[in-house]
Model the fold of this input.
Amino acid sequence: MGQDYPATPVVAKAAAKKAPVNPVVAKAAAKKAKEYNPTKATLVQPVRTDSPRQTMKTFLRLTGELEVAVLAYRRFRNRLNFERIRILGPEFMELLDLSEVPKASRWEVGGDTSTFLLDILGRVELPTLNEIPDAAAFDGIKPAQWRIPGTPLKIVRVANGVREGEFLFSARTVDVAPIFHKRTANLPLRSDIGIVSWYEALLQGTGPMVPMGFIRAIPESLTGVWLDTPIWKGGIVLVLVLITVSLLLLWHKGLRRYKPKNRAARVFRRSMTPIAIIAAVLSLKAFVSYQIEITGRFAAIFDGTATVVVYLSAVLVFWLLLAMVSELIIQSPKIQDDSLDANLLRLGARIVSFLGALLILAIAGQDLGLPVFSIIAGLGIGGIAVALAIRPTLENLISGVILYLDRPVKVGDYCGFGDQTGTIEHIGMRATRIRTLDRTLISVPNSVFADKEIENWAHCDKRQIRTVIGLRYETEPDQLRHVLAKLREMFVAHPRIEPETVRVRFVGYGTSSLDVEIRVYALTREWNDFFAIREDVLMRANDIVRGSGSGFAFPSQTVYMRRDEGLDADRGNEAVEQVQAWRRSDILPFPEHSSARAEQLSGTLDYPPRGSPDAKQPPAPNAGYIEPISAPLENEEDKSASETVIGSISSTRARLRPDTNGRL
Done:
């Protein structure tokens, strides 16, 4: 039923100064001290708090055992006898309700309160155990409490928590006991070993590692009290703190001489300093608490400072260790140091470290007595304001995660976004850094970068060569056909051009040229190689144009000085007569041809043109180089419909093919 306290209470360190002792009492006490076994006594007589009577009975029993243990420590100042005193400390604090005391100072406050109770209850007149009520006296009574006669001290039944139902000295005892202790300071203390005041004995008491000769040699002027602790003890603590700080600085300076070669080792080196701080502070705190035995406000300040330093160092250690783990993962052969995976691993480590640091600091605040979790729960509108303030940061953070999951780019990729192009150098928690072609560095917030259309050139499997060349208008039709044919041959034969996608076509009449469009794909992903291939094919195209007797056009105007012969009157009259005949026969093809005439004309032109390999028979549906614009047909009905259309077109062409005289 008791709380779990460490065996280091202040009250259990009451190695009091020597005082006059009744010889008879001293002899009896010495016999008890010789036979005293604290472990056996504790096992046989556990702490009982099931009623006010049992709580008081336990307190008086522990007081007697403490006197015997202190007398044994006086006779033989060794570790074993000191442990006999220490083992009683947690049992005294089992009788106190310390639920409202900050955890960081609970041991010192509990020890001081127990010391005050030893003096108070050893001076005032106490009722007999039979006069103290037991648990049955409080059946149906709420709140169940009993006040010690002549004192403001109360033993109350705990209403909730892990110690619910136990009768303990109330939580207000921590505040009331020091005040009432001063009021009873002049009353004699009932003690079998001549102790005048447990509190006075505690102030000058030390552990076995501090020699008694050193204590006796302390000047009287240094035995005064400052912040509830003797001045000489405070001075020793300050000296120990300075020594500890100096050793830590030397340790840190020595670590800086070590120059690791990789990030994981550098992070581990940085973590060694906070680890050393934690070890040094905990060791110093244990030595000061067990051997120097500081008390009161000085002890509260020392313990609070030590707690803050330990938790801050723990935050730094947690942060650095997670960073080291992420760097060890990145050092694996599959992850490049500057890749997106590496940056996202670091980002994830930082996020977890940040959340862990908040949790550690919250626990530290609770230990120091700050209602951290209550404050967090009651933020309300303030929490909304904070959330709005960090909204841009959260947007960038989430966008960074999206970039990791979607992976549109990675470090080293050349990409375009908006009106900018460049190479990705770093993808961080807040922004992405891009090196442009003019070597400037652009830092784009992740939220902006993720919302843009990103064109990733690094994912190209081949690069397009596309251009339009203009031939002079003096080029004859067959010359143009020769140029087109030779260009196609050159591109198909080129080993670095994909033959399946070669497209060289006469596309139109420009203002001063016959326009031929070239669109082919170079089989490369590298820019320099692409420029070399493009240069080669353009030079070959120049040779073909020159070799065909044509030339490249350029913006120009030609003025012909000749007599205007006018229009061809005969052909004009023939055209007018034909249109009038259409009108008289009601077959004028405006706005459209009649359906019968359209069916009659369908497929009658010679395409492919006469003289080509495909002119004598219709081409197969899959002949030639095809660039699909949709996925292959998978549905049988779609395939059947497609074959029907192709068959119909082929039969129409065969039926309407002109004979050798040009008639249908």
Q: What stands out?
A: The first strand starts at residue 145 and ends at 147.
